[in-house]
Specification:
The complex is a heterodimer.
Chain A: H1 16-42, H2 62-68, H3 71-103, H4 108-117, H5 119-123, H6 126-136, H7 143-150, H8 162-189, H9 194-203, H10 207-236, H11 239-244, H12 256-265, H13 270-295
Chain B: H1 5-32, H2 36-39, H3 53-60, H4 62-95, H5 101-110, H6 116-129, H7 136-160, H8 164-172, H9 177-188, H10 190-206, H11 209-214, H12 222-228, H13 237-257, H14 262-267
The chains are: A mainly alpha, B mainly alpha.
Chain lengths: 300, 272
């Protein structure tokens, strides 16, 4: 892409970029940064709306100390990590398989159809994914148990048991985000120069060595993108889980965003919830720095 | 066409992919045409007498109609605002050189990563103090935190692909920067602007957490109302699934329109 635009003789005033940028930047500062600062301030206060008589005194790092020594917070982070390592390998494997099917020559019409249908899970409202999950994994009339019965397994109470509920939200997440991986890998596969792939196909009949030596290098950038973006998404994951399980049963599906929402808006301990949110923000900033470092280096 | 076992396997594989992608969606739509008795049947019914009763129920329910209206108002307004604010910024990022450009760019992008719960808490408190809870305005503004970056990103990309010679020629003719933006970049960049607007609409339409926290009775959006049916003893499954279908259908159509750009929209250009 032609990038060098009349840099020496710019032909525009020094303040011109400012006028174009100011509206967007000021808006984002106002609605993004200002609330963040507000959350930071709140995180140093005792701030429980259900007890307004206590006032909202500054208590220093007490909220942070409480959060960091709160085993529930750590276990929700740990659970989020477990969720990530459960769904990601499946999404990568299935996504790669789908991408290879879509990349393979032939079957033009069916292939286009499959490619288009991949968009459906991605566009489905996350809350509605949760509603569908409630229907599919219902103990009495859910179709998941019917599938199990067809294969000779007994059905069980998915959403009523800790491991079942965890599996159910994992399956819905895998449904929704596998297409994302598939489309990214497909883009990677189509970057392989045609002649090289043709030559390799003549050279070897093994699909595996084709994948390993020819296609893999083109898949790696997409793989990194998937790993980093999905980690941020899992930290954000709220809608589907909230609708399906509200974090339960017990704390079996209490992912970090769901947990913080409960502390803030069910228990109304906004001081503690703000401290948790700030810690989550710090974690996210580290991840997004990593993301930018790794992924945008070639672009700029 | 030559029929070989490889071809057959390929075709079967593709059919499995299609079934995988569509099944939950199909199951929801099917349930939306079932009577409560059919939905509660165990084992689940695959063949049944379809009924329109659920749709009649939800279209007679002012709560659902109102919620869809609220979703439309919020998603359309925030999208319009995002384009209005974002397109000029994208132009500046695409064509101007200035100090701090890289940092600004990264700041826009990193907004995609932040969990809504981080902002939902303070925005709730601020909105309460400013008496903005349960208004369209608060949702329209807070949705800009993810829509604006999307618009900026996609439009920057689009504007960069417009030949700079056009701009130089216009400048020689004495056009000022704003005229150049309006007369050259807006029309030529229209496809990119449209794609970014559709993404912004989809993301706003689908959002639940902010809407759940920041609205009460008056401006509940469609996902909030659909979720609110999920309480009580005997759930109105048909009605829930009909509402779900009504929510998902418009965004699915939009998503199919921009399906070629789906990955770009979701990764903000991390992959080509």
């Amino acid at each position: 892409m032609a990038e060098k635009t009349a840099t020496p003789n710019r032909g525009y005033g020094r303040w011109t970029p400012f006028w174009f940028l100011a509206p967007a930047v000021l808006t984002l500062l106002l609605i993004g940064i200002y609330p963040t600062i507000f959350a930071l301030v709140t995180s140093f206060r005792r701030y429980n709306i259900t007890r307004p008589r206590d006032g909202f005194p500054f208590i220093g790092f007490e909220n942070y100390l409480n959060v960091l020594s709160d085993s529930t917070f750590w276990s929700s982070l740990l659970l989020t990590a477990r969720f990530y390592v459960t769904v990601l390998p499946v999404q990568i494997a299935l996504g790669l398989a789908i991408a290879l099917l879509l990349h393979k020559p032939g079957m033009g019409l069916l292939k286009s159809l499959a490619r288009v249908t991949l968009v459906v899970p991605l566009a489905t409202t996350y809350a509605v994914v949760g509603l569908i999950g409630r229907l599919i994994f219902n103990r009495d009339f859910g179709v998941a148990n019917q599938f199990l019965n067809w294969f000779g397994f007994p059905g069980f109470d998915w959403l009523g048991s800790p491991s079942g509920a965890f599996a159910a939200i994992a399956i819905m997440d895998i449904w929704q985000w596998t297409p994302f991986c598939a489309l990214i890998f497909l883009a990677g596969l189509s970057m392989v120069p045609g002649e090289i792939e043709e030559a390799a196909r003549l050279e070897t009949s093994s699909r595996l060595s084709l994948l390993r030596y020819v296609q893999l290098p083109y898949l790696l950038p997409g793989l990194t993108a998937v790993m980093i973006l999905r980690s941020a998404d899992v930290l954000k994951l709220f809608d589907m889980v909230f609708v399906m399980t509200r974090g339960g049963p017990g704390s079996a599906t209490d992912l970090v965003s769901v947990y913080i929402q409960r502390v803030g808006f069910r228990i109304f301990d906004l001081g503690t919830a703000s401290a948790q949110a700030i810690l989550l923000l710090i974690l996210t900033i580290i991840i997004s720095r990593l993301y930018i470092r790794v992924l945008y280096r070639e672009v700029n | 066409m030559r029929i070989s076992s490889g071809n057959v396997l390929h075709a079967i594989g593709l059919c499995v992919v299609i079934a995988f992608s569509l099944f939950p969606f199909f199951w929801m739509v099917a349930a939306s045409f079932k009577t409560q008795t059919d939905i509660l049947a165990s084992p689940p019914l695959w063949f049944f007498m379809p009924t329109l009763q659920n749709y009649q129920d939800i279209f007679a329910d002012s709560k659902v109609i109102g919620a869809v209206g609220n979703s439309l108002i919020v998603a359309t307004s925030t999208t319009a605002l995002a384009v209005l604010l974002g397109a000029p910024a994208a132009y500046a990022l695409a064509r101007f050189e200035f100090r701090g450009k890289g940092d600004l760019w990264f700041w826009f992008i990193s907004n995609r990563m932040i969990s809504p719960i981080v902002l939902a808490l303070p925005v709730y408190m601020l909105a309460m103090q400013l008496r903005l809870l349960d208004t369209h305005l608060v949702l329209i503004l807070i949705y800009l935190t993810f829509n604006l970056p999307i618009v900026v990103w996609i439009c920057t990309d689009q504007f960069k692909s417009i030949p700079p010679e056009l701009e130089q020629a216009a400048r020689l003719d004495g056009a000022d920067q704003f005229t150049i933006f309006r007369k050259i970049y807006l029309p030529l960049g229209a496809p990119g602007i449209a794609v970014s607007a559709i993404f912004s609409f989809i993301f706003s339409w689908n959002e639940l957490l902010y809407a759940l926290v920041l609205t009460r009775k008056n401006v509940q959006t469609a996902p909030v109302v659909a979720t609110s049916f999920m309480s009580g003893y005997e759930l109105p499954w048909g009605k829930i699934m009909a509402t779900g279908t009504v929510i998902v259908l418009p965004v699915t159509i939009f998503a199919l329109i921009v399906s070629r750009h789906m990955v770009r929209g979701l990764t903000m250009g991390a992959t080509k």
